[in-house]
Design brief:
heterodimer; A: alpha+beta; Rossmann fold; 25 strands; B: mainly alpha
Chain lengths: 494, 334
Amino acid sequence: MVKKTGAKPDRDKSERIFSSYKPLASTYDEYFSEAGKVRSQASTVVQHLENLGRDEIRDRMRLAHASFLEGGITFSVYSDARGGERVFPFDPLPRVIDPVEWRRIEQGMKQRVEALNSFLGDIYSRQKILKDKKIPSEIVLGSPVYRREVQGIRPRNGNYIYVAGIDLIRDQQGVYRVLEDNVRVPSGVSYVLENRIVMKKTFPRLFDRHNVVPVEEYPNRLRRAVTSAMPGRGTNLVVLTPGVFNSAYFEHSFLARRMGCDLVEGRDLTVIKKRVYAKTTRGLQPVDSIYRRIDDDFIDPLAFRKDSTLGVPGLFEAYAKGNVVLANGIGNGVADDKAIYPFVPDIIRYYLGEEPIIEQVPTYICERKADRQYTTENIDKLVVKAVNEAGGYGMLVGPKATKQERAEFVKKVNANPRNYIAQPLVELSASPTWTPRGPAPRRLDLRPFVLRGKDTWVLPGGLTRVALVRGSYVVNSSQGGGSKDTWVLESKKS
Amino acid sequence: MISRVAENAFWLARYLERVEGMSRMLYVNINFVLDVNLEGVPRWYPLVLAVGAEKEFRARTKEADRDDAETVQQFLCWDQDQPASIASALDNARDNARTIRETISLEMWESLNGLSLWFNGPEGRKRYQRERFEFYQYLRDQCALFQGFALDTMLQSEAYHFMRLGTSLERAGHTARMLDVKYHALGPTGRSIEWPREIAQWQAILRSCCAIEPYFKVAQGDLSGPRVAEFLLFEKEFPHSVTRSLDQANKFLKLVRPRGSSADRSAKALADLRSQLDAISMEEVMQRGLHKTLSWIVDSVAGICSAVQEEYFLAPTQVRRHRTEPKRKLSRTA
């Protein structure tokens, strides 16, 4: 046999990669407005991939996979008994966002996070919004993640939300809608940065033809935001992690590395006279700002869960005294509780006096009798979600579930209605995604990251997660999701 | 720096030095066995004794297999459940590195992670089965690559100093253990004329400490047990000699030791060992017995390591005083 040389067999070129690609019915496709008709922002990408050919793309995907593995860019899966590290599957077909579209999303994100921060400030002080009856107070104060302990405590600069990750989806018409908010410890940003690095390494020529807005300033921006409330003492910043067995440890380590600060576990910190110190080889050294990746429940065994071994005893008191900045603040969960979510448009109107820029998804609150009845009767048409779960756990996709699964969920909802909401199944937008048989449509979402310090900044693009399983609507990494590099294109230069 | 991170850095270096030392030892021993036909003399079992894994080894093997090349290599190379194996040292090195990725450089992490993937994957296995020499050689090379990256890409600050401290102490102990292989294989070393097999054993020991050529440069043609021992114990210019390794350890211990620190147990233990080695002549070593001296060195180094552990890695409880404050004796309750 003669070894293959530089010239590719003709067969490879004649069989065009996208020729058999069919967008999903009644679903917005990110690349194609209809079969064979490419949207303008995706046309250069499609053309470039056609020029490369299937074999070349496969080779480069292998290279990308090896890159992630050798870099140890992995996450742990809890269900895996040995605590295995896995590579977050990476799809080489980028998501491309038009600059005009992006500007609107960016404004919408800033607006939403600003309103949520005001909401937290109000709820943990005078509770005007409740007194004005804009939101039923039993839903807010009855939230399992409302923290009575922080009532009356004003964090430095009134800043609760330093980092937010807002999950967006696009409906059938391509309209962006907020699906949920994450203002506790949103994760995934390290993949945004690493995906870009790997993408540049494996498809360098693609970047010659586009002006893609860079993303790498995120860690520096994060550092500035988190230390903004402690002027002049910003050097004593640490990232607090639950430890090496946490599924997002890679990200914690990544951010500490890029911010140039120490990565600590709870046992590395101690509190003396309401001041926080790090245990160093040269004695105790003061800590002023903590970017924490430990949940409220586990952060201080004296204030919250007593059985927590991850936390720092006394940290809450130091925080309450204003001696340390916690990013994000304690008690933020009440702002991203899925049962509060339906009221966010009202929250925006109430605090900012503006109409919401980005729409959201109609939601039924099972705590309300009428909504509950509608939910249980129409469960085959709805997505039902536990209000304080993440990672795609505790949810039912009605139309895809079995009769028995639905019946079980109806029981759960009736037993604990406060714990559930329901939404119509949105036909999430899809994008061509590489499969062993070439590109096929797979559904996706988008998580832009918002940083709030002295000013508010939105990371251009964000994390695009894609449901790699055919027909799936669940994009979470723990449920077989992958991710794509997300491009915001520069506005056309004159 | 964070005490826990310093501890991880120290151990990362020690484990990696262990991987390197073990690989070199096994590499050399294959050669040695091929070179010299030693009827009735144990050739592999002494390695197990030298690295102090006798108990675990005996629990896993039958009497008849204990000097079998494959049995010993399988045990020293792949046995995850015993701490002296390359497999567990490499795993431990990687775990420590992963925990402090924010501290080491990207290049260091990638080279170590790559080595671990190779070792634990099909490629490492295949190489072990087909090209044993190249297998050990590759392990050594990759450890050296990591050290090179450490020197060239990592901040030369406290974490680096703790790593170097770990490397130096591990190395001092390893060289002493290697010298003792001869005792385990052929019995005590006297001062009379030695058998050719003893000479061959000494050469193998020199090789497994990367010392064969340096030795001949210094020894000027003299090849005898006491002379080899003297070289590996006392040669100031040789990077793997015990005293040189201890001097390095001392240098880095001074760098990590804060001014006015109360952490002086480790420094004192190190200085004691060093000055006793200075005071003793090779004649006295031989009179006292080489094996006995080596055991004493190995135990003393272990003592220094545990003092470092206590003084630097266990949780501090006192707030750090400002540099300009008058020196104060800090009490330690940890």
